[in-house]
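Continuing the batch. This is chain 6 of the set; chains 1 through 5 are on the previous pages. Same settings as before, nothing changed between runs. Recording input and output for traceability.
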Amino acid sequence: MNELQNLLDSAVLGTRQAKTGAIIRKKDSNIRALSPHFRITPSELSTIHRAFANPKQGRETPVLIHGKAYSCVRVDEHAIYAKDGDTGVIIVQTKSLIVLAEYDGTMFAAVCAEAVESLGSYLIAKGK
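Output for chain 6:
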């Protein structure tokens, strides 16, 4: 198991407040770590890249994950918070990676967000 997979498993999925998650390399969209049953299409990943590139437009355009449209409630150059009813997705970008986690209605969104943000901060401190 690689280091990024260990980090995703322990720091995000280990909280039990994220249903699925992934760490994706930005430059080539290579998935570096993922949870079971997590899939993302190239077009879904491109909606994330576009939202980070243009946060104002990103707030107006849903983020697609697993074919589900999540309305963005926060978009800036560092993070995207999006939701659909009581489910949502937290996405953080670092210099070279995107960390993403989905939560559902049985989970606490704030705990999921804290876990993803904390992992993102750790990766940024490591220069990743």
